[in-house]
Structures are given as structure tokens and as C-alpha cells.
Amino acid sequence: SAVISQKPSRDICQRGTSLTIQCQVDSQVTMMFWYRQQPGQSLTLIATANQGSEATYESGFVIDKFPISRPNLTFSTLTVSNMSPEDSSIYLCSVSVAAETQYFGPGTRLLVL
Amino acid sequence: EDQVTQSPEALRLQEGESSSLNCSYTVSGLRGLFWYRQDPGKGPEFLFTLYSAGEEKEKERLKATLTKKESFLHITAPKPEDSATYLCAVQGAGANSKLTFGKGITLSVRP
Lengths: 113, 111
Description:
The structure holds 2 protein chains of 2 kinds.
Chain A: E1 4-7, E2 10-13, E3 19-25, E4 31-37, E5 44-50, E6 56-57, E7 68-72, E8 75-80, E9 89-96, E10 102-104, E11 108-112
Parallel strand pairs in A: 2-11
Antiparallel strand pairs in A: 1-3, 3-8, 4-5, 4-9, 5-6, 7-8, 9-10, 9-11
Chain B: E1 3-7, E2 10-14, E3 19-26, E4 30-38, E5 45-50, E6 56-59, E7 62-66, E8 70-75, E9 84-92, E10 99-101, E11 105-110
């Protein structure tokens, strides 16, 4: 398994601003993932972040809105840009450690006013 | 496109009342089916991975089973601390296949 931390744990932001979420893992991992969890909805993959390459975005998510950095094998950031109330959600990072199993961080709870 | 449907949406049990949670799925070649537990305000906690039909895995009061179309999470003699949302996800066999999650089942166990 892996121990994953996220910062901040929660935030309240004004529309039009941006927030950067950090994800730190206690071991080196190749693949890190960013998800969004909206109330009453299933977890939705935003993008896959591999160290040393550009992030791969899922349909409906674009780099200008959700830029991602992956500077090393234990750290990644997700920025939510030009926020609107529709971006209010829980944002989760996860890592793949053994085979296909993914382990998740505690999440960042974002409220946009 | 991979799909996951979990039922029921919510389940209320009395302590000690055993039951099962259902996860129906469609996928192009199954690489793995995953069960997670999520407590309020926390991230999903990994429970089980199942790879092929007929496989079963157990952990304390939980047992996960798998067929070609669905998975069950059996909860035997649940306790209030088993109250949580249980998530099911599948990963197909295609290259770069992602996890597809269901909406989850919220379990409440009354003392």
C-alpha cells in the first residue's frame, strides 16, 4: 500500500480564482491519478500524471482548466483554474502501487462561492 | 464503454443482520474488479481486488465474490462501525484502461 497526503484538506474560494492542490506519496510511484467526486455521483477520472511526461486528460477535462504538474516520483499538483460554483467538489489523488490496485488520498473538499 | 451499477443506493441494517451489496458491470475483458470503503470526509479505502469469475476474498465480516456479470459484497453480522459507503470499480483489459466506478452504496448499521 501507500500513504498519501493532500493539501489543503478543504478550502472555500471565490469564483474566478484558482486553487492548487498538492499530493504527496511516501514512496516512489510511476502513475498518479486525479479524480473528482461530486455529490451523488461516482468518482470521475480527470487525468493520469506520469513523471517526465505530459498528463493524459479524460474526455471533458482540459489542461487549461486543470493543469497538472508531476515534478518527481512522489509528488503531483492539480490546479483548478478560473473556478465557478460548478467546480465545488471533492478532489482526490490516487496512486497505483501493486498491479492495478489504486490507493487514494484523503481528498480536498472545495467550495466555490 | 465500461459501466458499473450498484444496488441498492442505500441500505439500513440492524446490528447482526447479514446482507449483500450488489455490483453489476459490463466491461470489455475484465482486468480487475475493486471494492472500496469510504467514510464521510475521507478518501476511499481499498478492500479487495477480484480478477476472475468464481474468485472470493474475505476480510473480517466482509466477503467479496465475483461472477462474469456481477460482484457481491456480503456483510455477515454487521456492526455499527461497518457503516460507510461501499464503492465498486472495474478496470478493463484494454491498454491504458482506467477505473470505472459505480455511485456507491451507503450502508447504515443501527445498534
